[in-house]
Design brief:
The protein is an alpha+beta fold. The protein is built from five helices and four strands, in the order E-E-H-E-E-H-H-H-H. A hairpin with a 5-residue loop joins strand 3 (39-41) and strand 4 (47-49). The relative contact order is 0.18.
Length: 102
């Protein structure tokens, strides 16, 4: 399975390792069944994100425990959530292109 990455604006610690680049796999249909959708469309047609679901995807796709995922800087979580939502509304190609702009 293809591994993707996102350079973190602020490194995080996991055990004795400093993580500067977040590595993760692409989400699958199984992930969506298990975790649910990270967003729904609101009244104005804009996505409304569920933070708990976004963090669950971060943990699942990176294989990092939730206690480590919660250390990720909010701007990096924001980048990840838009990347993630593109898988549900666009294509893998569009999601990877978005990720590469960050």
């Amino acid at each position: 399975m293809e591994e993707l990455s996102l350079k973190l604006s602020e490194p995080i610690k996991h055990v004795d390792e400093e993580i500067k680049v977040l590595k993760f796999r692409c989400p699958t249909a199984d992930d969506a069944c298990k975790l649910g959708y990270p967003s729904v469309f609101g009244n104005e047609g804009l996505p409304v994100f569920n933070a708990k679901v976004v963090y669950a995807y971060l943990s699942e796709l990176t294989a990092l425990p939730p206690s480590v995922v919660k250390k990720i800087a909010l701007p990096d979580v924001e980048k990840f959530k838009y990347f993630l939502s593109t898988f549900f509304t666009g294509s893998k190609k569009e999601a990877v292109a978005l990720l590469n702009r960050f």
